[in-house]
Design brief:
single chain; 334 residues; mainly alpha
Length: 334
């Protein structure tokens, strides 16, 4: 126990020292970047804040400073989780993993900490680590009530997400990236069931989208088609959130209710988001899958290329498009 607490204290001191150094470096060079990982094509990837509409950079920085102070003052599941989440928003995925690992040293049976570390590992393309953490988190959640994330400060509360939903959803993502499609479909199905339990139409939509892709690639075409046909939500059902609109439109393409080429029109992009580049990448990945499901990889190629060109390298569409490109086209560069 003494060795454990000494190790934790050393890590915390390291975090404090690193924080002081980072503040000094930030003041000297606001454009300082930190290496995070390497893409499937060997490209070094550096810190980049995750874009979020309605997210103030100043409020994020304020929340991050307070979260770090709270974490240093007392390591709890919630202080480690919140600090790790904010570091993820800042694109500091490796630092987030360090913080969550410190939390897990104190609370090794916390499914919440494992769930968040699994997400950060996924962003870094460390899929095996992500799957390991995700499976353990899912095991620890078995038989427990659904749990929401604890809110942050009033000025920057964060989303009160259902923790189990994202545990299963991100596990599905990591399995999909490793081409374990049948297993991915199972976890996307569980994510959908959680969303249905509390009328989360956005979660249902995103889960159905990825379940369909997983089942199709697993060769379970009947299950994929049945789930697609059963999806009957409308845009009006999603009026309170725009996050799932791209997935909704993608499902309409798979249902043959919409032309895949219509995804990339300038008018549509301008109407959907203040960051049309992200929407374009997500929609391009949908069109790529439309052709992949028809066994026409050459037609999918330009759309996969568009999806991997987005600067936000932690975007799910980019991560999955990288994996698909390598599988389909080997060493060829996009």
């Amino acid at each position: 126990m003494t060795n454990k607490k000494t190790a934790v204290a050393t890590l915390v001191v390291g975090l404090i020292s690193a924080s002081v150094c980072q503040v000094a470096m930030a003041q000297a060079d606001d454009e300082k970047r930190y290496y995070q990982t390497t893409s499937a094509f060997g490209e070094k990837l550096y810190t980049a804040e995750l874009p979020a509409l309605n997210m103030s950079a100043q409020l994020l920085d304020r929340a991050l400073v307070e979260a770090e102070a709270n974490f240093v003052a007392e390591i709890t599941v919630d202080s480690a989780t919140w600090y790790g989440r904010l570091l993820g928003y800042k694109g500091r995925h490796r630092k987030a993993i360090e913080v969550l690992t410190v939390g897990l040293e104190e609370y090794p049976d916390s499914p919440k900490l494992l769930r968040h570390r699994a997400h950060r590992y996924f962003s870094l393309r460390e899929f095996d680590n992500s799957i390991e953490d995700g499976l353990e988190a899912a095991r620890l959640f078995e038989g427990k009530f659904l749990e929401r994330e604890k809110p942050g400060p009033e000025y920057f509360p964060g989303d009160p997400d259902i923790v189990q939903f994202y545990t299963y959803y991100h596990l599905g993502q990591a399995l999909f990236a490793t081409r374990s499609f049948a297993d991915a479909a199972d976890w996307f199905d569980r994510a959908m069931q959680v969303s249905m339990a509390h009328d989360d139409h956005s979660g249902v939509t995103s889960s159905v989208y990825w379940f369909y892709l997983s089942a199709m690639r697993a060769g379970d075409i009947a299950a994929a088609k049945a789930r697609l046909d059963a999806y009957e939500l409308t845009l009006d059902d999603l009026r309170d959130t725009t996050e799932a609109h791209s997935y909704f439109d993608g499902l309409q393409v798979f249902k043959r209710n919409r032309s895949p080429q219509s995804f990339l029109s300038p008018d549509q992009l301008a109407s959907m988001s203040e960051r049309p580049d992200l929407i374009a990448a997500s929609n391009a990945y949908t069109v790529a899958n439309y052709y992949i499901n028809q066994a026409r990889p050459e037609l999918a190629k330009p759309y996969l290329r568009r999806a991997v060109q987005v600067d936000t390298w932690a975007l799910f569409a980019r991560i999955q498009a990288e994996a698909d490109w390598v599988y389909l086209f080997g060493d060829e560069k996009p």
